[in-house]
Amino acid sequence: MTAAQGFAIPILVLCLGHVFSNAVRTIPAVAVDVLTRDLGISAEVLAQLTGVFPAAFAAVMIPVGVALDRLGVQRTALGLLTVAGSGAVLAALATSPWMMFVAQVVLGAGCSGMLMCPITYAARVLSQQRFAMWSGIVQAVGNSGMLLSASPLALLIEASGWRAGYLACAGLAALAIAGIALLVPHDPPAQPARRSLWGDVKATVAMIGRPHIRGVVAFVFASFAAVLGLRGLWGGPWLMEVKGLPRVEAGNLLLACAVALTIGPAVAGILMRRTGRARLLMAGSHYVCAAFILLIVAGGPGGVLSVALGLPMLPAAWDLVLLVAFGLVISCQVIGFTLVRAAVPPEEAGRALSAANLSFFLGAAVMQAASGVAAAWGGVPAALLTFAAGLVICTTLFLLMQPRRAAG
Fold first, then answer.
1. Rounded to an integer, what distance in angstroms lies between the CA atom of residue 249 and that of residue 256?
2. DSSP annotation of 234
3. Could you identify which of 75, 141, 167, 196 might form a hypothetical disulfide with 15, taking C-beta atoms 3.0 to 4.6 angstroms apart as the criterion?
């Protein structure tokens, strides 16, 4: 094994958990019609149900950060994947809204460290310069899970039902467990425990207020929420119910967005490494993505652009271009992890990154719930506009809170 493989293989194997996480949480985007039919609920209620996934995720994020620093990455990853795989099985067996609610809670708790495990491992074994690039690679590999939940899972759901999609994800979790057990070395804790467990929890929470971290915390509150909202929940209803596309064609458009989300983080990591303009890349990307969401809605039935052009609505090609552009540009969110990593020593990386990731998913939970309320009031377009507003507000807070001497 070469020196490069020495860190590359464990990081990439740990990414399998992130692949699972992205695949399982975006199943509702291509199965919303059959899920709501079989569970006897509306799309708005499904938004509330699936919103507990990021809520449960956020609820255990702080303990996950402590576990990464106290127990090591391998043991933490194996435990979380066991929980997550169980959640996928529970979702496949759900016959009522309450059963799906429980399944989403278990899934959210289990997936809570699927990004942090490879990111923390990379933060400990790589230099800060290499970490900037590899954090993008981790996100890119993990986002390939969205490829599975687009056309491939759309075809599986069309042929065998939505339960088969969750069972396929459970199989992926089992594969990840085997790979991590065999190929990821058991890593000792980053440092001996000098505080009580409660002391570690308080120290992790306190990191959110650090000058070089609090701006990132504000930024990512809307960042992943927008990805999950557009690609993972409301993208399917927009394309199928509003634009009238069949499931597989809608899945193909979401697949294109997922490809962009897979490529984008690696490109963002390279841009960050070459330019060092973190604040510019992060803020600019999210303002632009808010504009993309506005343009998608403007091209819908009765939208501003559709009316201006005298059309019932703009063609699906309009949505395709904007979804791909959104996926590429929003990926600059990964640069936030580079800022957090640079703000702490390696032995605190697990807790610091987890503190930022807490906001990543707490924001998704809050904004997804808000989008459900907006959808009940103004339909799918109103739900999408919720995320555009969130991007603008949180990015502005980031610029106001980030220290001027920060990178970029």
1. 11
2. S
3. 141
Closest CA to 371 of 208, 176, 225, 158: 225
The C-alpha atoms of residue 343 and residue 207 are separated, in whole angstroms, by 10
Do residues 368 and 54 touch, judged by C-beta distance below 8 A?
yes
Encode 271-302: b = buried (16+ Cβ within 10 Å), e = exposed: bbbeeeebbebbbebbeebbbbbbbbbbbbee
DSSP assigned state of 300: S
CA atoms within a 13 Å half-sphere pointing along the CA-CB vector of 156: 15
The type of residue at 361 is F
Region 39-56: what's the mean pLDDT? 80
Six-digit token string for 134: 């590899």
Structural domains for the chain: 8-184+203-401 (1.20.1250.20)
Q: What is the pLDDT of residues 137-168, one digit of tens each?
A: 887 788 777 777 666 777 888 888 889 989 99
Between 247-275 and 278-298, two packed helices, what is the crossing angle to 10 degrees?
160
For the stretch 200-209, pLDDT in tens is 667 767 777 7
The whole-angstrom separation of Cα 205 and Cα 160 is 44
Residue 396 CB-density burial (10 A; 0-12 exposed, 13-18 middle, 19+ buried): middle
269 in Cβ contact with 132 (< 8 Å): yes
Q: What is the pLDDT of residues 106-117, one digit of tens each?
A: 999 999 889 889
Rounded Cα distance between 221 and 216, Å, is 9
What percentage of the chain carries pLDDT values higher than 70? 90
What are the helix (H) ranges across 208-277?
A: 211-227, 235-237, 247-275
The residues, any chain, with a CB within 8 Å of residue 3's CB and separated by 6 or more, are: none
Q: Which residue has the tokens 């809204």?
A: 97
Contact 243, 316 (CB under 8 A): yes
Q: Worst-scoring range by mean pLDDT, 63-77, 101-115, 351-365?
A: 351-365
Distance CA 290, CA 13 (A): 33
Name which of 165, 137, 185 is nearest 1 in CA terms. Answer: 185
List pLDDT tens digits, range 366-399: 888 888 889 888 899 999 999 999 999 999 999 9
